[in-house]
Specification:
Elements: E1 11-17, H1 22-32, E2 37-44, E3 50-57, H2 63-70
Antiparallel strand pairs: 1-3, 2-3
Length: 76
């Protein structure tokens, strides 16, 4: 998976299938937890089957929120 992004102090890395809904699902969960997204970078393989999201956030993300993100349908 090719991805060009800058690295920040607080980063989430999400490996996922390249399917609709990931951005909205992650954004909703972070928003509900009052975590602001500073940058959201996406990359995928040439076959558009595997993808990765590199997300810089302004607040710490709790283990509970990370667990919810890991349960989103396309997250590996």
């Amino acid at each position: 998976v090719a991805l060009e992004a800058s690295i920040g102090n607080r980063m989430l890395v999400v490996s996922n299938e390249d399917k609709p809904g990931l951005i909205g699902g992650v954004g909703q969960l972070l928003g509900d937890a009052k975590v602001n997204i500073a940058n959201f970078h996406l990359g995928r393989n040439a076959a558009a089957t595997a993808a990765v999201a590199l997300i810089e956030v302004d607040q710490d993300v709790t283990k509970a929120v990370i667990e919810k993100i890991s349960k989103l349908p396309s997250v590996k």
